[in-house]
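[step 3/7] fold_predict: job queued, chain A
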Amino acid sequence: MPRERVASFDVEFVSVLGPDGSVDEALVPDASDDELREWYRTMRLSRRLDERAIALQRRGEIGSYAPATGQEAIQVGASAATRADDWFVPSFREQTAALALGGDPTAQFLYAMGREEGAEVPPDANALPPAVPVGSQTLHAVGVAWAERLRDRDRATVAYFGDGASSEGDVAEALNVAGVFDVGVVFVCQNNQYAISTPRRLQSRAQTLAQKAIGAGIDCVQVDGNDVLGSHVVVREALDRAREGHPTLVEALTYRRAMHTTSDDPSVYRSPEEEAEWARRDPISRFETYLRERGILDDETVQAIEADVEETIAAAVERAKAAPPPDPTDVFEHVYATVPPVLRAQAEAFREGRR
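[step 4/7] structure written:
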């Protein structure tokens, strides 16, 4: 028998607003000027939140913090494509998406202060709390989406993770189960080029991370993750497929412009030249230029947004600082629905030791 090709694949790349300012007008999303200004405001709000959180951590006022600086476009664009009843399943760097979905920045500061109420999900929100174990949330997302399919609901689930998580077995399993059972998940892989200090080239020899979906039999696409317009278009299309029971892996090419967390020093493993190159592709400045060229933003509007952002973040910091101090015995709670005797005994011993 002669050899024959039994399958072939390709991966599409999408960009609407290029780093050089070029625009594919045929793909520009149908969003109002007010919506576009709100996307811009959310991106600026997230950037300022990161700046304040890093400053607070350096002063010892909060614990470790994972900035989303540089990754605002994919999170805002994706969030703007979701419906109110869709599910949001984050990792630990999705504060931008949380803000875009209406979250209070106070919660981000509380969480960084070690207060679990900062991760509390409002009862009317379809969301899961931040997941620190790398990649584990993708399995949770598949479970949520599968449950919605069994209930015959057309709700979609958006699961965020990074390029480092794409090397985890949890993600491979999640992709596989999503494909087998046709669940409505959009996997958003934010390829920010580093798994802490490990560069993308040492994580995988695959030409793209998007193609990891092919082995699971699900759709995949790659997008310029620093382009909020392209990110919105791609995730919106993926959500439409998800509602029909077809999962998608979206690989968003972006860059973590700050440290992995405030415990990290990226200057050890990244060159100034590399950082300068990605600074020229910054998602906020790129989007601002686009909005100014179309008369959607001007100096006065930008100044008003900056003042509003500053006031919002300052108020959030004050509310977080005014919150009651955390109870250390909370570490024994919220692990089991019913606390087992051995854990309860440890909690009592801990309390006795503090008296």
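[step 5/7] annotate
Residues 327-355 form one domain.
The mean pLDDT is 95.
exit 0
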